[in-house]
């Protein structure tokens, strides 16, 4: 079965979401858009920390490790979106801190890096 990148990405995001929920994280929001290029895949809560999560999925290492797809430009867009989310929702949020995590999904293997910048 052939899937487009959006469908593959949605599967990877669901795998990442299931993984984080199993670790005790609470779900807040999925695919939050600040602008055309600035999007947060998952917004989660880890105790008193708001966590912005970038998910990258690959089915093989032919094009490199999934984390290699988080480029400098991509990181800048994630930071922009995180700042936008905090500006729009900060008053109603009750968090002591926030961070940006990365999750790499390679088939069924999940790698989670906290605070990736």
List the helices and strands and how they pair.
Blueprint: H1 5-22, E1 26-33, E2 39-46, E3 49-58, H2 72-89, E4 97-106, E5 109-113
Parallel strand pairs: 3-4
Antiparallel strand pairs: 1-2, 2-3, 4-5
Provide a quick synopsis of the model.
The chain has 117 residues and is α+β, with helices and mostly antiparallel strands. It is built from two helices and five strands; from the N terminus they run H-E-E-E-H-E-E. The model has no long low-confidence stretch (mean pLDDT 92).
Give your account of this protein's structure.
The protein has 117 residues and is α+β, with helices and mostly antiparallel strands. The chain has helices spanning 5-22, 72-89, and strands at residues 26-33, 39-46, 49-58, 97-106, 109-113. The protein has a five-stranded mixed sheet with strand order 1-2-3-4-5, sandwiched between helices. A hairpin with a 2-residue loop joins strand 4 and strand 5.
Mean pLDDT: 92
- Output the structural class: alpha+beta
Radius of gyration: 14 Å
Helix count, DSSP H or I runs of 4 or more residues: 2
Give the SSE string.
HEEEHEE
Strand content: 35-45%
- What general form does the structure show? globular
**What is the terminal-to-terminal distance?**
36 Å
Low-confidence stretches: none
Total strands: the figure is: 5
Percentage of residues assigned to helices: 25-40%
């Amino acid at each position: 079965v052939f899937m487009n990148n959006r469908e593959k990405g949605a599967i990877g995001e669901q795998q990442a979401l299931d993984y984080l929920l199993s670790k005790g994280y609470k779900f807040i929001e999925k695919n939050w858009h600040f602008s055309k290029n600035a999007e947060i895949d998952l917004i989660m809560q880890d105790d008193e920390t708001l966590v912005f999560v970038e998910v990258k999925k690959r089915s093989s290492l032919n094009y490199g490790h999934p984390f290699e797809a988080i480029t400098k430009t991509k990181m800048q867009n994630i930071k922009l979106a995180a700042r936008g989310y905090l500006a729009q929702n900060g008053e109603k949020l009750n968090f002591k801190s926030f961070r940006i995590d990365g999750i790499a999904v390679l088939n069924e293997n999940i790698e989670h890096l906290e605070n990736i910048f």
